[in-house]
């Protein structure tokens, strides 16, 4: 049994879906300019190495407290169809098919939400999703708490380890494709870590360790990403 784990943003997709979602929600009036600015500052501070995205994720989940699931799910569906669906990297689709033909399990391992991840898994015919899900009460409202392990950094590794154990796979026989240095904990435990369009820190680390660095291209008409 072998598993191929795939990150989503900037890996399977040529964009960061979180950044696009912020702009989408702002344009529709679902968040204020101030909320969009705060979210952008969190992302900038993370890229500069000043803050953990886990802190930002927990803060974002907390802000969902009291909001209804149904409207967010509906907006996520529209957002995916309108903006994300055309933005899969061509090389990603080829590699997915190669692993499928080899009989490997295809697993999305992402910090994105379950709402978006379900749509991705449906279109790409993935076998499993490891992502961030939110606690919902009996009235269909978010409680502001994560459901299970926060899927980021060390939490991503925990999710991968738990899944591999569940299906009887050795991580040494598994692959993981990602663009982000924050995913180093997972890359260090799989047998085939692959850097896809890596950020600067991951590129340096991959070159130092002799890990493959690959270019999966961008969708036609989308320009460089």
TrEMBL record:
NCBIfam families: HAD-SF-IB (TIGR01488), HAD-SF-IB-hyp1 (TIGR01490)
Pfam families membership: HAD
Domain of life of the source: Bacteria
Keyword check for Lyase: no
SUPFAM superfamilies, per the entry: HAD-like
Entry protein name: HAD-superfamily subfamily IB hydrolase, TIGR01490
Keywords of the record: Hydrolase, Magnesium, Metal-binding
Keyword Ubl conjugation attributed: no
Organism for this UniProt entry: Stigmatella aurantiaca
GO molecular function: hydrolase activity; metal ion binding
């Amino acid at each position: 049994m072998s598993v191929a784990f795939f990150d989503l943003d900037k890996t399977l997709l040529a964009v960061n879906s979180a950044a696009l979602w912020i702009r989408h929600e702002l344009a529709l009036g679902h968040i204020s300019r101030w909320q969009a600015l705060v979210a952008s500052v969190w992302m900038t501070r993370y890229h500069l190495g000043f803050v953990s995205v886990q802190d930002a994720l927990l803060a974002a989940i907390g802000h969902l407290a009291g909001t209804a699931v149904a409207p967010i799910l509906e907006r996520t569906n529209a957002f995916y169809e309108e903006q994300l669906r055309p933005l899969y990297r061509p090389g990603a689709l080829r590699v997915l098919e190669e692993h499928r033909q080899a009989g490997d399990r295809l697993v999305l391992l992402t910090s994105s939400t379950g709402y978006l991840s379900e749509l991705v898994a449906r279109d790409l015919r993935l076998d499993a999703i490891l992502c961030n899900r939110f606690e919902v009460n009996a009235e269909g409202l978010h409680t502001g708490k994560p459901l299970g392990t926060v899927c980021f950094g060390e939490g991503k590794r925990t999710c991968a380890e738990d899944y591999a154990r569940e299906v009887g796979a050795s991580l040494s026989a598994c692959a993981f494709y990602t663009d982000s240095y924050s995913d180093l904990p997972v890359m260090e435990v799989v047998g085939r870590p692959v850097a896809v369009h890596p950020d600067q820190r991951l590129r340096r680390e991959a070159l130092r360790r002799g890990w493959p660095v690959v270019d999966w291209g961008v969708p036609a008409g989308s320009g460089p990403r």
